[in-house]
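ARCHIVE CARD
Drawer: 12
Card no.: 0347
Subject: one protein chain, sequence and derived structure
Cross-reference: see card 0346
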Amino acid sequence: MNKINLYYHTGSANHGCEAIVRGTHEILGGKLRLFSFQPEEDVKYKLNEIVQVEADTETPIAKWTFNYLLAALQYKIFRKTSLGTQWKKNNIFSKVIKDDIYLSIGGDNYTYQGVWELADYNKILQKKGAKTVLWGCSIDEELIPNLLDDLNRYDLIITRETLTGEALQREGVTTPVKLCPDPAFQLKINKVLLPPNFSPENTVGINLSPLILKYGNADLILKNFENLVHHIIENTALQIAFIPHVVVPGNDDRTVMKPIFDKFEQTHRVVWIDDYSCSDLKGFISHCRFFLGARTHATIAAYSTEVPTIAIGYSMKAKGIAKDIFGTFDQYVAPVQNFVREDELIKSFQWLLQNEQHIIQHYQKTMSDYKTNALLAAEFLKEI
């Protein structure tokens, strides 16, 4: 197989991004090359021990030069950045060898800002003779019509859930589309030392992200989490573990979780898990009896270790992954944009309690095969 490169990796402080890289390594093996925006983070979490990490470096264009003005004009008129991208991303593009494979990773990067830069990468890599793959993606359907030219340029698209795959087909994407579970379903799990008050198999894991506050009434969402913790303490014998999964400055789970933890710390029913690698975090999550999480890869860690889980979601990815695992996303996803009451999460948790055994039995029948299907991605790459 040709040399495989991973690009548009935003750094391992987002442990979902780290989990995708580690899961991809489990699927593909060999010495993968990773172009990273934050290589120092990848060294911190020892990702460099399994992949070849290189900086996706930017060489600033000198202001008021011809290239600078041309790039600025292109962006102002067309809202595209290909010239600026080509001149700034010297490292990755100088390493391109014809027919090498470049995987655009990050799961749902096409849902956020920077879509045009992703398109620019794809275009330039293709012009240099590389084969490009959109790797383990989720894309909201309403965005696809504006992305058709770019999506049709890839040699292969691998979606991580069927809702995206069906949307791509409906919108007329002509690139071959394959379905595989998210690479993180193949993430190895580390043994961890549980802290005091973390009762194995009798703890509720909770993950809250500042990102979800943008998709609904922020005060109402936070109140739902606070009421959920209060309800668990008052009505059950369960412990509660607060587990962050992204610690990126400006998008750090700890900033929204810590105030809730502090409010209940004196009950001795809550435990704080701080920053660890994604494999360590999966270790903590695997010891939970239940899990309610906003970060997709935190819920993937729970699903893959057969922990009954509610995804506190807002997008295609949460619904699609839950539907593929359980046959429906109803009840398994709590969409924050639909919250109208302060007990929405309490109701989700009560449903989880009532259906615990059913969910466990379903995992026992299906999860092993579901996780194994992630390995099919290696076979799909061989086809190109």
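Annotation on reverse: Residues 4-179 form a domain with the Rossmann fold fold (CATH 3.40.50). The first helix runs from residue 15 to 28.
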